[in-house]
Each structure stands twice: as C-alpha cells, then as structure tokens.
Amino acid sequence: MIDETAAAATLAARGRLQIHDFTTRETATTLYELLRHHNDWYLSFNEGPDNFETSEAEFGALTIEQKHRFTAAAYRRARSGFQYLFKQYYISKAVASGENTGHPMHSVNNWVTGEHFLGFMRRLTGRSDIRTSDSYASAYGPGHFLTLHDDRHPTHNRIAAWVLSMTPDWKENWGGHLAFYDDHGNVTEAFKPTFNTLNIFLVPQHHAVQFVTPFAGAPRTSYLGWLLG
Questions:
Q1: Which H/E stretch holds residue 4?
Q2: Domains of the chain
Q3: Is-contact 200 161, C-beta < 8 A?
Q4: What is the pLDDT of residues 48-60, one digit of tens each?
Q5: Cα–Cα distance for residue pair 41/92, rounded to 1 Å
Q6: CB 3.0 to 4.6 Å from 53: which of 15, 42, 110, 139, for a disulfide?
C-alpha cells in the first residue's frame, strides 16, 4: 500500500521519488513478459536536433562495418552534445496511428491515460492541471545511453516524467543508472534499474541514462512517459 501523503511530501521536497513494488507481482510479471517478447522495437537516435527511428530489421540488414560506423558516429556526437541511442516503442503514437491494432502492450496506454493513474499522479505531484500522459517502452542494450538533458520540450507542457523500471537482476557494474546531476556536473543521486519500481521526477531536472556496458547481461527495460498539462 502506497502512503500517498509521504510520497507526495518526498517528491515536493526532493523533486524525485522512487516507489518500489508499484504494481502487484502478477501485473508486473505480465508487463515484463510483454517487454521480453516484444518484436517491434525501433532503434532511436538523434543527429543534432533531428530525431530518427529505424526498425530492427532495417538496422539488422546493415553490414558489420556499417553498424560500426553508425555507432562510432553517435559516440562522436555524444562527446560534445546531447545524444541518445537506445531501442523504443512509442506506444501512445502506435495507438493513435492504428499501428499493430490490438497489440497487448497497448493496454499500457489505456492504463496511464485512465483516471486511476492520472488521479494518483495529480495527488502525488500536487498538480491538478495534469491532463494526460504519453507512453513508451524502452530497451537499452550494451552501448546504449542517453546523455545529459532536462526534459523540457518546445511544444509539450511536461510537468513530470515517470519511468516504470521493469528490469530484474540488474548488476550495478552494468551501468544504465538513471542519474541526476547538480549544476557542477556532479551526480547527486542515481537510480539503479530494478523490477517493478516507479521512478518519478519533476521537469525540468538535469538527468541522464548512463552508458550500458558491453558486458551487461540483459537489456535495461522499462515503460515511461511524461505527465502533460
């Protein structure tokens, strides 16, 4: 049972919060199995301000040399600017466009746009102006990352971000932590990928997903979205 009063006080004071065992074990297992067996991932990356997605089939068709050149270019851009490289499935966009109609993962979008979830988030954040939430699934494999940013968007009113971490048996040395930074670039706190844990933080806030090491033994999987005003 979540103590909403205590959770809301922590979020207000610190700007971020973790809630372990967020759903029932049965629900968490079902959500994890959807991620584990998902076959419609897109490799998501950017080149400066431009965002791109390519299907796993398209990326898989590249030669080894082409894949190395692609990854090396992303790493070079990450040296001096905002850069990301990971797999995602934009659930709410797929629902809106009619892609994969009836896909069981689309139930996540129904859940996070329903009054039970949104009402809880309004009480937790103290923001009655939360209108809806979008929804994604993500998978970070070895070599994937998301560099420092603060989640502000030029056209979307993002009030807070939520991440439902669905990664069992993650080892600390595998990287992939959701890290928060102060104005000097110091890590002030970092959330390890774990199973059935809700991470929520107010926007804007400097954070990153740290590089997943080449020896990571499993993907870092989660559901996520932004609470929108």
A1: helix 4-14
A2: 4-37+91-228 (2.60.120.620)
A3: yes
A4: 999 999 999 999 9
A5: 14
A6: 42
pLDDT at residue 71, rounded to an integer: 97
Q: Are 198 and 19 in contact (CB under 8 A)?
A: yes
For all residues of the chain together, what is the average pLDDT? Answer: 97
DSSP letter for 13, please: H
CA distances from 227 to 46, 159, 169, 192 (A): 23, 6, 28, 22
CB of 150 within 8 A of CB of 226? Answer: no
Angle CA 59–90–4, to nearest 5: 140
> How far, CA to CA in Å, does 94 sit from each of 33, 91, 134?
19, 5, 11
Q: What is the pLDDT of residues 181-224, one digit of tens each?
A: 999 999 999 999 999 999 999 999 999 999 999 999 999 999 99
Name beta bridge partners: 108.
Answer: none
Residue with tokens 């301000």: 49
DSSP H/E element including 188:
strand 187-191
The closest alpha carbon to 164, from 195, 191, 134, belongs to 195
- Say what angle helices 4-14 and 115-125 make with each other, to 10 degrees: 50
Query: What average pLDDT score do residues 57-78 get?
Result: 97
Question: What single-letter amino acid sits at 192?
Answer: K
Burial 43-53 (b: 16+ CB within 10 A, else e): bbbbeeeeeee
Give me 69's structure tokens: 């050149």
Per-residue CA distances from 177 to 10, 132, 187 (Å):
20, 27, 11
CA angle 221, 222, 224 (to 5 degrees): 150
